[in-house]
Amino acid sequence: MPVTPTELPRTLGALRESGHELRGVKHEIRDNLLAALREGRDPWPGIVGFSDTVVPQLERALIAGHDVVLLGERGQGKTRLLRSLGNLLDEWAPVIEGSEIGEHPYEPITPASRRRADELGGALPVGWVHRSERYTEKLATPDTAVADLIGDVDPVKVAEGRSLGDPETIHFGLVPRAHRGIVAINELPDLAERIQVALLNVMEERDIQVRGYTLRLPLDVLLVASANPEDYTNRGRIITPLKDRFGAEVRTHYPLELAPEVALVQQEADLAAEVPRHLIEVVARFTRHLRESSAIDQGSGVSARFAVAAAETVAAAALRRAAITGEERAFARPVDLESVPSVLRGKLEFASGEEGREDEVLEHLLRRATADTARFALRGVDLDDLVEKVGTHPVRTGERIPAKDVVAGLPKVAALTEIAAKLGASGTEDPGPMASAAELALEYLFLTRKLAKDSSDDGDTVSYG
Q1: What pLDDT digit, counting tens, does each position of 327-363 carry?
Q2: Which terminus of the chain is more exposed, N or C, with fewer CB under 10 A?
């Protein structure tokens, strides 16, 4: 947690003298967003693929002061986008020291804080909260109760002698505690409808109701939520009155182009070994082919987390292979892609009627992705000499063949120099990049039926003419 700067005012009187002005949270977000846009700063660090579609819509909604629901399939970055909203808050915000719900010193809203403000006047102590403390997130689950979101009567306070109708007997829930901040509810349709009803007053009248009496709290919150379209019919739905209270509904999507898909994987994947870009592209194309396949249930979507997990699996396979073969540096090769379908099959929902064909579908689409990547990466390279040489001098590859042995067994042809240059394998003494580049070219020639190959039970592959 960041350390509070010592020069910040510590009493209400000092705060007034500093010239601090009170702004509502939506006004604060609007001002900071517009300032970032004017200065050319990116308000959405880490958000990939939304710059021309989702982000402009969200920015318009925030500038308009609307509560927002993000609607999209799983793994489209909805939660990451919601969390980035916290960056638009002021870095430090004043609160009444000791206040249960972070009230602004200029506007106490609970009876206890009003009483303290009247008694202490300009000596009212002021504390400061960092923007990271003003973003509150709740994953909606069917067992979420009204008390979790809004609040309930605290039996301990009642036992202390307060009457049941005393507002000070309330234990505040998540939404009131986020006063002057952002409340994000993930998977909103999973909330039971009676729980969603409890949010209606918060969004419209900005007050809360607990146990039959109304406590008027002019809450200052930005309420944002995420939802999956499939959930409207599967597990639940957003009730119409609540949906009507959201000022904006923004649709998210998977990356529309290959480059953002690759950038997303490179940004998010925690790789145990080095994975060259051409293999990241294979993973990205494989994911995109899955999203277009009729064999996959597109209602469930193919999450961006699938591509990230696939890249991490490739890296793990490379590290395991390096340990087995005794290589000092683990560098991923196309042979490591073979582990992806079996490991990640469970992350996909297949369409009805595809029972028993799952492995066949995944292997076919992975081969397509490999061929497409190689075709694009090696365009302009004349591979005829390589085909001819391999036809007379077969090349042995596989997960038990070290990179140095793969490179040593390659024929001396000009095409391999061009392949190395195209795939970033030039200018290094490490055989890993060259072995990876050569394997991709050999696999491409096999997939285009210019070479044949045999695979043994121990994982070795021999490419020949």
Answers
A1: 999 999 999 999 999 899 889 989 888 888 888 999 9
A2: N
Phi, psi dihedral angles at 125 (to 5 degrees): -70, 140
pLDDT at 156: 61
Distance between CA atoms of residues 293 and 301, nearest Å: 11
* End-to-end CA, the chain: 63
DSSP, residue by residue, 229-249? GGGGTTT----HHHHHH-SEE
Quickly tell me which residue has 């590859």 as its tokens: 397
- Tell me how far apart the alpha carbons of residues 310 and 305 are, in angstroms, rounded to a whole number: 8
Residue 58 C-beta-side C-alpha neighbours within 13 Å: 25
Q: Read off φ and ψ for residue 123, nearest 5 degrees.
A: -85, 0
Instruction: Give residue for tokens 């090769």.
Output: 333
Would you give the DSSP letter of residue 206? -
One-letter amino acid identity for 54? Answer: V
d(CA 396, CA 425): 19
Q: Quote the mean pLDDT of the chain.
A: 89
Residue 249 φ/ψ, nearest 5 degrees? -120, 115
Q: Is 455 helix (H, G, I), strand (E, B) or coil?
A: strand
Q: Is the dihedral of CA 124, 127, 131, 137 positive or negative?
A: negative
What predicted TM-score, i.e. pTM, was given to this entire model? 0.87
362 Cβ neighbours under 8 A, 6+ residues apart: 340, 341, 345, 348
Q: pLDDT tens across 167-182, in order?
A: 666 778 899 899 999 9
**Is residue 98 scored above 70 in pLDDT?**
yes
Burial of residue 374 (number of CB atoms within 10 Å: 0-12, 13-18, 19+) = buried
